[in-house]
Each structure stands twice: as structure tokens, then as C-alpha cells.
Amino acid sequence: MTITELGLAAQSASRALAASTGAQRNAALSAMAEALAAQEQDILAANELDMQAAAQNGMSQSLQDRLALTPSRVEGMRQGILELVAAPDPLGLVLGGGVRPNGLRIQQVSVPLGVIGMIYEARPNVTADAAALCLKSGNAVILRGGKEAIHSNKAIADCLRGAAASAGLPADCVQLIGDASRESARALMRANGLIDVLIPRGGAGLIRAVVEESSVPVLETGEGVCHTYVDAAADLAMALDIAENAKCSRPSVCNAMETLLVHEKIAPAYLPRLAERLAKYPVELRCDAASLPLCGGVPATEDDWAAEYDDLILSVKIVASLEEALAHIARYGTKHSECVVTGDYAAAQAFLQAVDAAAVYVNASTRFTDGGEFGLGAEIGIVARQKLHARGPLGLRHLTSYKYMIYGDGQVR
Amino acid sequence: MTITELGLAAQSASRALAASTGAQRNAALSAMAEALAAQEQDILAANELDMQAAAQNGMSQSLQDRLALTPSRVEGMRQGILELVAAPDPLGLVLGGGVRPNGLRIQQVSVPLGVIGMIYEARPNVTADAAALCLKSGNAVILRGGKEAIHSNKAIADCLRGAAASAGLPADCVQLIGDASRESARALMRANGLIDVLIPRGGAGLIRAVVEESSVPVLETGEGVCHTYVDAAADLAMALDIAENAKCSRPSVCNAMETLLVHEKIAPAYLPRLAERLAKYPVELRCDAASLPLCGGVPATEDDWAAEYDDLILSVKIVASLEEALAHIARYGTKHSECVVTGDYAAAQAFLQAVDAAAVYVNASTRFTDGGEFGLGAEIGIVARQKLHARGPLGLRHLTSYKYMIYGDGQVR
Questions:
Q1: DSSP one-letter code for A370
Q2: Best interface-test mutation with B: which of A194, A356, A380 has the largest number of B CBs within 10 A?
Q3: Which residue of A has its CA nearest to B326?
Q4: What is the ipTM for the molecules in this complex?
Q5: Quick count: other Cβ atoms within 10 Å of Cβ A276?
Q6: pLDDT at position A321
Q7: Which residue, among A413, A173, A331, has the nearest Cα to B361 in the 3D structure?
């Protein structure tokens, strides 16, 4: 099928979804969860084909780990869907409104975005997660996953499509592009009028290509070069706990700390103790000239300040003031998550106001930037640089738009 | 100056704006209003240069009318700015938040978008309107107006820049691209990292070009192919008033009706009377085969159903049911403003739910889709097709994003 055919089918499905009730969408989600369990063997067998090809093609172990499905990973997808069944319906919410002086009654009501295109890499669980989030929020979805996961994705998508149909919704609520080529991704990016929003999910290269080439509106999920600034007035023990957590609790994710900024007054007391804490992982430290003698490691290069390591590596810099920390963050940050550790009221307020990022923390780890932690429920990605529509974790509510419903009794202008 | 230089200057100004208070921004707006009055003669003289060139180049009368400035139009720009001084500050509003189970206090707070790029045609009043809306909402703006208005735009921008500086804000809060070429517009569209949002304002061709070519996120202000559907159960007098108002009160704007759909049961009673009402303007009617004998006019072609006339022309079609009306709107509408006239509760509800448009009306003219009429204040455009970020009239609140400010006391994950 061409992208145009997929798009027209998705539009038709999206109209059915917009007219469906929350109960119908929940019934379809429940059927999807059941079908995943019932068809687990088929899905694992399909994944085995992808894994064999990956091994033959010399895919790296970490990528193979992302590609692999196991009974517990299928169960994880199933549980994720069941959590969405329990989540509140994001549609039909009255977001605002009132009566105008002429008597017009205006209601601003949440509605689906319409048709969402997802472009992602070789992680088959995204197929189930994204399809379920889109269905819950009343959106038809066209999935374009990585070609390395094509057998797994087809098995999962077929399973979900059958479940949607069994619950009385169109199977085309969920469509997978069978041809995982560069051209199919590009066609999706130019399908204005058929696709309402494109969400790329994956590495920086994928995101950048979609932002550069897409004429369809994009929700740019993002890179995280996150900083923790340990102020002169920081509580030492708290600053140690927060930095260790921000770097080491899950270094591969976008809300992990990549650069530590330390005020020069506290650096001699702080950095040696931090280095000791981080040595046990071990974390490689890349330090500016002032911090190097205090914590050891290797000298940082200019590239280090802009690097998203996603690994047990940390760049370290000593600053003379809060202002220098703010300037460094403005220059090298990606507007994702930034933290100040301080006991000083004015420093905390200044940091909160001045830092331009989706999430700005006082005295807490940047690792909390997450849909679940923010109380938004499951997320489809985290937006950093982009300012339109939504910032930070994208939850169900961010997969909606709104329309104005206006009740008149003959008003003219 | 290159777009990169303009962009860097705008980023620097946007940081100053983000740190400014509402009182400072209002003082700058007041200074701008004063400066427009004080420099009226210079602005009119600059406009005279543009008007002379326009006449020499054979610009059409309607475009010349849009280009022309008069003392009363300058006064209109001044009044628009003073209204913004009186408008509530859209920044720093707490949009949501709460305490998480771990004690983290999360606040979602409105912040500026950052740097806005405006691409527009030969309407010099947009220069002042857009600059003032952006300043009030804490955004730096880069203006790229049509080359036909370049002298007028330079005079207005210089005036506003001086006023901003006199009030202690950077002059670069407002920048005008001196080179109104195709290349400068294109450079603006590719300035990711420097420009946060691009807002095109003008004809369908301009909007489409920006949507197609821009890698910077776009707020797609839009075409309006707006329908009024007169249901079988409509009040005849009300349906006459609404249709006349929707077509004739200001036919050149995007919320004017372009196509009238009439239920076959009411058409024989309704259409002859409507034709009589519209004859006095006069409105040219382009009719399907069934309506032609009832109201006269000329036969409609397929192109008419998709046409945004922006003129005293109306296409007319008789439908057999509400469903046929909904299908026609789904096929030819632009998701802008759609109206049903009916006394039937079920028909009204079905129309409100099924129509996918920014504004859906029961028993009121589509002409109300307007920032002022919706209580949003001055608008920078109206979004129709696009679903991301904001739909319908774009007011001050839609020129903002948000960030999460998170208050912790040592939380780690």
C-alpha cells in the first residue's frame, strides 16, 4: 500500500475513533492486551527471525538487546496497555469556555489530533506502546518502525489490528508500513493533509532528519544534555546523592545528567567525595582544568560540553558564580532538564526563572522528568527543544487537540 | 545582517524579555504607542514611497488599499498597542501542578515561546500588530514583510525599536529583515535553533510555501472554506439572518461562509427568500442542479466546492440528510468554522460532535471566529487545519509555552 492509501484508511479510522466512546476504546485496549497474551508464541517466533538476521548482520549487542522480545517483555507491553485502560479518558474534557456578552456559549473541548505518524527504530515494544497510547487518545496511527524489527512489528501490529476489529473499531486504527525503507519514511514526512502530526522516536540522527525534512508538523522528542549545578550554598550530602542518582541510576536515558557544574567555593570539599562515590560504577570523569586536580579523570575537550553520552561518563566544570553556570547551560543545554542544588532562596529562584528548559529542578534529580513521575501517566516521548504544543513528557493529554463548540440562538455579527 | 546574526541578536533579546517584568513590557508598549503618534509623519512619508512604487508597478487597487497608511490607520495601530497594555499578562501563569507522592512540588508555568519569525505580505499594519503581540508575550520577533511595504515597515520597525530601547528593553526585541527577498524568507524557514516558531500570515500560496519548506515549527494560520448547513428543522428567519451575515458582513475574511448546504425539505421555502436577500449586495450564486431552479445563479463546478472566494460569491448545494452535509464538510472543508442552523437537539449534537473544525457553531454566524469575539483579545492569526499547539484564533496566550518548575528537598529516583 502507498502512504496515500494508508493515510486515507487512517483518516477513515480516525473519524470512527472520534465518534467512539471511551468505553469502546477501552474495550479495544482490553482486547489488545488479551490478544498479546494469546499470540505470544507467534510474536516471539517472529522476533526470532529478526534476531537471527540481526546476528547475521553483526548488530551490536546493545541494539540486539533492544530488539529482543521475551515472555516478560511481551507481558510488559500487555501491562502497559492495561494501565491505559485504567487511565482517565483524555477526550471530551471541557478545557475552558464561558458566555460571551452577546449570549454565545463557548466551550473549548479536547478532541483527538487525528492521524499520528510514528517513526522509530528497532524497538518492537514501541509498536504496542504507541498504538495503545494513540488508540486511548482517539487517534489513528501509522507506524513506521526500523527494518531490523519488521517481523516483530508485523506480528504485533497484526495482533493489535485484529483485537481492535474484534472490539468493533476499524482495524485501520493501527497500521504498520510494511516497507521500512528510507522512502517510506520520507513519504510519511510529506503527507500533509493525511497525517496531522509526526512523532519521531529514537536517536539524535533520526530526530534531526525528521525535523529537517518533514512538512507535516512534528513533535520533536529530544536529546538531553542535562546539567546539575552544585551551588556554593548546597547541602553537601544532598548534592552527592542527587549527582550520583542523576548520573548513575540509568545513564542511557535522556534525563540523566551529562555535565556537572560546581561552584568554586564548594568544589574542594565536594568533588573529591563525589569522585569516590562515582568510582564504584565506575564513571569516567572529563574535567576542566580547575576540577581535574580535585577529582581526577581526563581533561575535557570542547566537544564534551555538548555531548549526550548516555553512558557512565560525566563532564565536570568549576564555575565562579551562578551566572557562569546559567551561561554555560544556556550555551550547551538542550532545554530538557536542569537542576540546581542549593540552600539559598535567591539562587533557587534565579535558577528557576532564568533557565529555559522543559523541567527546572531545585534540589531533586533530573531523572524525575518522566510521564509517570509527573503524574501524566505513560508517555510517548519527552520534548526538550521544541516549544510548540507541549514540553517535557508527552502523556495522553498531549496527544489531543481541542475544538470550540459554540451554542447560539441566532447571533450574527 | 544575515539571518544567523539576526537570530543571535533575537535570542539575546529574548533572554532579556524572559527576565523582564510585565510592568517593563507594558512600559515599552506604551512607549511604542507614543512613538507611533510622534513619528506619524515619517511613517506616512515612508509609506508614500511604497505607494508610488506600487502605482508605478501596476499593483491592483485592492492590494494598494492594503498597503496604504493614513493617519487613521496609524491611530488604529496605536490603539491596538494600547489595548495590549491593558490586557492581562500571559506570562508566569500557573497552569497546573501539584505535590507528587514523593513530596516533589511541580508547577507548570507559562513562559514565552522565545524567538518568533513572522512572514507576511504587503500590509504594514501587521508590522506593528505582530511586534506588539510578541513583546507583550515576552517573545523577540523577526519580521519579514513583503518587499512592496519595505519603506513603511522600516519606518515602523525603527520607531518601535527606539521606543523599546527608551523603555530599557533591547531594541532587538523587534527586528525587521531589510532584504525582503525569497532567499531571506527561506533562510528564516531553515533557522532551527535560532527561531522557535514561524508564523506565516497572508494568502494561501504564502502559507503553503512556508508549511512545505520550513524546518522550523510553523503555526499554520489558515484558509477558511466555511459552510453553513441549514437543517430541515431550522428556523427560517434565523437561517436567513445567519446566512446573510456569514456571507456578506465581510466577505474577504477567512471566517466568511463560502458554501451553503440546505436540507432538501426546507430548500423550497428557504432558497428563494435567501436569493432575494443576497441579491441586494449582490452575491453571485453557484448552484448544484437541485438548487439552481430555486435560487437562480450559475451552475457550480467541482472547483467551486473547494473554493475560498473571499468575495461576494456563494456556492449552494441541496443535501438529503445531515449525514450528506457532514460528508460534504469533511471532504471540502478546511477545519476552520462550520455552522448548523437547526431547532433539532439531536441534529445539533451530532453536528457539534462530528465536524472536525476549530470552531463548530449551532445557530450562530461563522463570522464570530475571532480573538476578540472569543474573549482572547487581539489575535495574530487564525489556525484551521493544524492541530498542534492551538486551533482557532491565536491570542496572546497562544504565543506562550510552559516549563515545569520543580521544588524538591533532596529527592532521588
A1: S
A2: A356
A3: A15
A4: 0.96
A5: 12
A6: 98
A7: A413
